[in-house]
Amino acid sequence: MGLLTSEDTALLDSLDRHARRRAEGIPTLSALVGDPERALQLWTQWLHRSGLKAAFAQSEDLRSTVSAWATQLARERNLFRDAESYVVFSQRAISSRELHFEGKTQHDRRVLFERLEPPHAEPVTWALCRQLLEAPEPAPQGTLPNEVREAISHDPLRVLHALLLIIPEGRAPALHLALSPSDPRSLRTATAICSAAPLLHVACVLPPDALEGTRGRKDSHALAMMREGLLELPDPASVATVQDLPVAEPAVPRRASSKKKAPASPPEPHVAPPLLERFRVNAEAMVAEREKSEAHARSKMEHFFYHDILQVHPATKDVFTLNAKVELGEGKRPLEVDLLSRELRLAVEIDGQHHFLDPDRFRRDRRKDLALQRIGYWVARFLYEDLHPRCEDILKTLESLMEARRREATAQRTTHGQP
């Protein structure tokens, strides 16, 4: 899309901020208002940078909108396998080795499903998984299963929520809506989808005059959400690229001299730093700012997860300590662990996305894991973006690790002859 302007960079950062709001469970509609071609380029650039694709849908009809998104999802993922993974992870009493549906007959899949214990939460998700796994024939790859299409026709929002639960976090395609602010049906559809699926990236591209008809109108919930996510693009004629920005020359002090001045030579043209170097400096500043913002958000989420989840949940109450130090001995600096159980020798780390994007950070984390493992700790890592939407799954994982640690400790005491 050519050189990014400073305004373009700010808009991409705003889309990142919208993504962080969604990760916190806040329904958000990104409304890019301005030159439609430029807005679409920026939205496409952000999707590419985030590793996402998008489904395009008209927003007048809720069922067709959800169906268009689900069709894009089926092109990208194998929903049969996603449903199988969801079911396997939900079971505690049955070994995961026994829970393989692929390759079995429809009768065998039904018999296997009868043995399973449905989770108390998310009955719609469980029912959808059952329909997918007990279908006469799995849908061809890239095709939306008839079972999902039929379920959408009856209850599109519940099915949308269920589909988001059975696929890995962050792998859902975004939704690009053709939205008309003057059409109440269009606004209602956008609001309903954002509210039912807060984690879903939803955006619309609007021409500059699209909001003229809404000025002076009393804000509905839909209009309020759209205005809250408003991202206005500047007029292209008034925008200068990074290459056009003036660069100030350093002031050079003048020395007094009694010598006769030589004829003035024409000033040498100022040579600006190479364009790639200026981009590198700008990119580093952006990354540092994003990491700072993400670290703050992660810290808030860690405190919420510890005080409002772990300390309230009976199985994990008083098991972990927040931000605890671990001594390594031999004069080495102690390590700080996000959540630590000294009794069970469990270390839980909460990571942000930059942990995986920065090679140096990734290497430090691996060295930290190795140091903890050398002194007998098990290390579990979770994305801070998952603490809220996948809280139940994380609690189950922690409980299984705690149980395994306790069994191990019991076996060691028995081996050493203790009762």
UniProtKB/TrEMBL annotation:
Superkingdom to which the source organism belongs: Bacteria
Q: Which residues form the DUF559 domain?
A: 337-398
Pfam families given for it? DUF559 (PF04480)
User: Which SUPFAM superfamilies would you find in this protein's record?
Assistant: Restriction endonuclease-like
InterPro entries for the chain: DUF559, Restrct_endonuc-II-like
Renumbered to this chain, region (Disordered) spans 250-272
Q: What is this protein called?
A: DUF559 domain-containing protein
Q: Which organism does this sequence originate in? A: Myxococcus fulvus
